[in-house]
Amino acid sequence: MVMAIESSRFGHVEIDPETVIEFPDGLIGLGGRRFALVATDTGGPIVWLHCIDDPTLSLPVTDPHRFFSGYRVELTDEDAERLGVDESAPVDVFVTVVAGSQPSDFTANQKAPILIRDGRGHQVINQAPGCDFRAPLFAEVQAGLGGGAPLFAEVQAGLGGGEDPAEC
Known about the structure:
Elements lengths: L2 E5 L3 E5 L5 E2 L11 E5 L8 E5 L6 E5 L14 H7 L8 E7 L8 E2 L5 E4 L2 E4 L11 E2 L2 H7 L3 H10 L10
Antiparallel strand pairs: 1-2, 3-4, 4-5, 5-6, 6-7, 7-8, 7-9, 8-11, 9-10
């Protein structure tokens, strides 16, 4: 059975209940505990973490490894135990994105990644050194280490194309 929500951003959205992510501790500073990943551009670098409990809440997120070649997440022993993860456990990692009108205005929160495993999500404080709350998303691209304008275009498409990305 498919779940349906009326999203303020996307209109009518159907969600497979098997893909719902439960956040037992919620997300830092936000309400809601049940979310789903919604893609506006299949295979693109940006997906939306959309709240099922509050259809007005959705956050653009990305896999940080697409933008930050040396990115890693270090957890405290307490967090690792609480989340039930270790070095061998596969975990999907996402960071929230703040959009801008120019590539240099886009940032990602490397310090508070979202970890998803087996239908459960947790936002944690990353203990790895050098992680920023507002890391320039395209810094490596601008330094010649990535895909440049095509990647920026993919990100804009994932944010909804014609919208003003600064409003995301």
